[in-house]
Design goal:
CATH architecture of the largest domain: Alpha-Beta Barrel
Helix content: 40-55%
CATH topology of the largest domain: TIM Barrel
Number of helices: 16
Distance between the termini: 46 Å
CATH superfamily of the largest domain: Aldolase class I
Strand order of the largest sheet: 1-2-4-5-6-7-8-9
Structural class: alpha/beta
Radius of gyration: 20 Å
Shape: globular
Order of helices and strands: EHEEHHEHEHHEHEHHEHEHHHHHH
Number of domains: 2
Number of strands: 9
């Protein structure tokens, strides 16, 4: 395993983040999303510490330089194994290491990590301490406001305080509790009610911590309002299914002058990456599946999606498939 020492000097700013989403925020999607915003902090899909230990770490940590700032999300519960994984992440060039303490899936629970770790704050604190000793970049936590019947504000504050005592300075909090039994991961993203007030309470109780709110945010207007109460916002499904929403992030949330492009213009900016990946043997469908939401609500958008879905899967599909699809929305 030969990971280079690729530590970057990127300044981490969590004012606006795109959530780690399994099967969605892979390296191709992150390069695409970067076309819309230079300031958004992007997160990888969760990578388990066990996979990095026993698998092909070079492949699992592969990413493009244009993705920065980009954070690596890890899943695991063994402090030593997580420390080794964090070190690999830093050597691989990531700007932040994030520990998943929020995923409620059965598969994740069977590995004794994810949201079930909220029941064991000392273990999470031990994991954070071990990871921080192994790297120089920030180590953060993404969690829920609670799990099952352990969802009181007192228990949430105890969790935050215990983990922060080991030096964790940033918490991304999904403002829903997680049901570890009886709901699928998809249902856990919708059925438990949002409770932003508990996240606001964390910020009031721990004003020096970096508190980022996640869950149910579907517009930059609502994100702007939430930033009056917390330090950052994280969008998940909306950012993936409607990526054009990100074109205004740098202007609306960071106050920067932005030269906006049309939807087609952002797609054209992504074409050189697609062509380079095709030349390396990457199938077209691995990239175009992330582009289906670009023309959501636009005239011709349905035909564009249908064309991409049907023809990008064909063997040896090339860039012309995408260009033909775009013709429907011009």
């Amino acid at each position: 395993m030969l990971l280079g020492n690729l530590v970057t000097d990127v300044m981490i700013e969590r004012r606006f983040c795109v959530a780690p989403m399994m099967d969605w925020t892979d390296r191709h999607d992150r390069v695409f999303l970067r076309q819309f915003s230079k300031r958004a902090l992007l997160y990888t899909e969760m990578v388990t510490s066990a996979a990095l230990r026993h698998g092909d770490a070079n492949y699992l940590l592969q990413h493009d330089p244009s993705e920065h700032p980009v954070a690596l999300q890890l899943g695991g519960s063994d402090p030593d194994e997580l420390a080794r994984a964090a070190e690999l992440g830093q050597r691989g060039g990531f700007d932040e290491i994030n520990l998943n303490v929020g995923c409620p899936s059965d598969r994740v629970q069977s590995g004794a990590f994810g949201a079930c770790l909220m029941a064991d704050p000392p273990l999470v604190a031990s994991c954070i301490a071990s990871m921080q000793r192994s790297v120089d970049i920030p180590v953060t936590v993404k969690c829920r406001i609670g799990i099952d019947d352990r969802d009181s504000e007192v228990e949430l504050m105890h969790f935050i305080e215990t983990v922060a005592s080991e030096g964790c300075q940033a918490f991304i909090i999904h403002a829903r509790k997680a049901f570890l039994q009886g709901l699928s991961p998809k249902e856990n993203r919708d059925i438990p009610p949002l409770d932003y007030e508990k996240v606001f309470a964390v910020k009031r109780r721990f004003p020096t911590l970096d508190v980022i709110i996640n869950g149910g945010i579907t517009s930059l207007e609502s994100a702007h309002e939430l930033l009056k109460r917390v330090d950052g916002v994280m969008l998940g499904r909306e950012a993936y299914q409607n990526p054009y929403i990100l074109h205004a992030v740098d202007g609306v949330l960071f106050g920067e002058a932005v030269l906006e492009k049309s939807r087609t213009g952002y797609l054209q900016a992504y074409l050189p990456y697609i062509e380079a990946e095709l030349s390396r043997g990457t199938p077209l469908k691995h990239m175009t599946r992330h582009l289906l939401g670009l023309f959501r609500g636009e005239k011709g958008g349905k035909l564009y999606r249908r064309h991409l879905s049907e023809y990008s899967r064909q063997k040896d599909a090339g860039i012309n498939v995408l260009l033909d699809a775009v013709a429907y929305v011009r």
